[in-house]
UniProtKB/TrEMBL annotation:
Biological pathway: Amino-acid biosynthesis; glycine biosynthesis; glycine from L-serine: step 1/1; One-carbon metabolism; tetrahydrofolate interconversion
Cofactor dependency: pyridoxal 5'-phosphate
Gene Ontology molecular function: glycine hydroxymethyltransferase activity; methyltransferase activity; protein homodimerization activity; pyridoxal phosphate binding
Pfam entry (one): SHMT
Alphabetical list of SUPFAM superfamilies matching this protein: PLP-dependent transferases
Compartments where found: Cytoplasm
Protein name: Serine hydroxymethyltransferase
Catalytic activity: (6R)-5,10-methylene-5,6,7,8-tetrahydrofolate + glycine + H2O = (6S)-5,6,7,8-tetrahydrofolate + L-serine
Subunit structure comment from the entry: Homodimer.
Matching NCBIfam families: PRK00011.1 (NF000586)
Main location: cytoplasm
Positions carrying N6-(pyridoxal phosphate)lysine: 231
Native source species: Frankia alni (strain DSM 45986 / CECT 9034 / ACN14a)
Length: 420
């Protein structure tokens, strides 16, 4: 049952309540390996489901456009102060609705339409909002993209430097959605400094690892840091922009009134709760456990003959290249989902297949680590992944059914916040 329970919703809208219950049960029964997902605590769920959703608060603490901010102001102050102290930054804006609007605010703050901007190419692991062509950021700005080295699958910092020198971008984004290795913030900072660009570290995926000391911090290297709050940081869906003092005003003006109206106060409160959780010793342990699980899973997958982009992982994320396996990423992901192992198909660097039918699958260990799985479970999990990928190619539904039962049995021993 969903926890906290939904007695009113069940009466008022049984159809919708049934769907929420079904999703809670689905999350409980699955091995969730989608690298951008997690399970938030029941405390975070309570804050984000609170009456704070009723309140409008355009503006910032002490400078609002509506009355009645006696309670919301201290809530936003808590979130801001906790973000500043957790990440060690001079300024935090906790109002962006999500990661994509947070990145749009960065463009609004530091570039004019048509200006040159730079980011990691989407099929190489960047994000849409780092200047990809179909995104507003690729249509309204002149975006140039750096990529990966073909021999290592790692970011080609020589290319980044050469491109930056010739193209002179206003903004350089580092970070992405499918990068299994540590991001070299000092190297990016040196390049950005040389060409006079604002370096933006988009740490959406790794914010929780940074908060828990399991990945180096961009603070002191990137003057502007963009992050979601709902991936490894394990908070509600939302985002934050963390900056030094010099870039604070431009970011605040860009978020409001530049881009958004009223902040989502229920989300702000839930972010504050998540930041408090993330400042505990237990969360440091969690962040390191996420990485330990990813390493163990990567090793077990390699042992099973899988080809991993860069050969392994430094963080929570693994990218499997199925090129040698006679199966595309999409049918593999669908078969795994049928077996209760949830992940996404993903392009691999220099993919020869189309974006909607690429050669890879992406996995992350943030959610299963919250559930309590440990490195000892990873060889079992890798074995199931191997069995299902082989079964999918052979049309062997019996094996997929067998793994589905084993998955259900394993996860039933690990409680899920939000489900009782
Ligand atoms: C997830 C992500 C975003 C976007 O976040 P949304 O909340 O989905 O808009 C931006 N940048 C990176 C690197 C991400 O991984």
């Amino acid at each position: 049952m969903h926890n906290p329970p939904l007695p009113e919703l069940t009466v008022a809208d049984p159809e919708l309540a049934g769907l929420v219950e079904a999703e809670a049960a689905r999350q409980h029964a699955s091995i969730r390996l989608i690298a951008s997902e997690n399970y938030v605590s029941t405390a975070v769920l309570e804050a984000s489901g609170s009456v704070l959703t009723n309140k409008y608060s355009e503006g910032y603490v002490g400078r609002r456009y509506y009355e009645g901010q006696q309670v919301v102001d201290p809530i936003e102050t808590l979130a801001v102060d906790r973000a500043k102290s957790l990440f060690g930054v001079e300024h935090a804006n906790v109002q962006p609705y999500s990661g994509s609007p947070a990145n749009l605010a960065v463009y609004l703050a530091f570039a004019q339409p048509g200006d040159t901007v730079m980011g990691l190419s989407l099929p190489m692991g960047g994000h849409l909002t780092h200047g990809w062509s179909v995104s507003a950021t690729g249509r309204w700005f002149r975006s140039v993209r750096y990529g990966l080295r073909a021999d290592t699958g790692r970011i080609d910092l020589d290319e980044v430097r050469d491109l930056a020198r010739t193209e002179r971008p206003k903004i350089i984004f580092c970070g992405g959605t499918a990068i299994p290795r540590t991001i070299d913030f000092p190297a990016f900072a040196e390049i950005a400094r040389e060409v006079g660009a604002v370096l933006v570290a988009d740490i959406a995926h790794i914010a929780g690892l940074i908060a828990g000391g399991a990945h180096p911090s961009p603070v002191g290297h990137a003057p502007v840091i963009s992050t979601t709050t709902h991936k490894t940081l394990r908070g509600p869906r939302g985002a934050m922009l963390l900056t030094d003092a010099e870039h604070a005003t431009a970011i605040d003006k860009a978020v409001f009134p530049g881009l958004q109206g009223g902040p989502h106060n229920h989300t702000t409160a839930a972010i504050a709760v998540a930041l408090r959780e993330a400042s505990t010793p237990a969360f440091r342990d969690y962040a390191h456990a996420v990485v330990a699980n990813a390493r163990a899973l990567a090793e077990a997958l390699v042992e099973r003959g899988f080809d991993l982009v860069t050969g392994g992982t430094d963080n929570h994320l693994i990218l499997i290249d199925l090129t040698g396996k006679d199966i595309g990423g999409k049918p593999a992901a669908k078969a795994l989902d049928a077996a209760g192992i949830e992940l996404n198909y993903n392009a691999v660097p220099f993919d020869k297949r189309k974006p909607f039918d690429p050669s890879g699958i992406r996995l992350g260990t943030a959610a299963i680590t919250t559930r309590g799985l440990t490195p000892a479970h990873m060889p079992v999990l890798a074995g199931w992944i191997d069995d299902v990928v082989k079964a999918a190619g052979a049309g062997d539904t019996a094996t997929i059914g067998r793994v589905r039962e084993q998955v259900t049995e394993l996860v039933s021993g690990f409680p899920m916040p939000g489900f009782a």
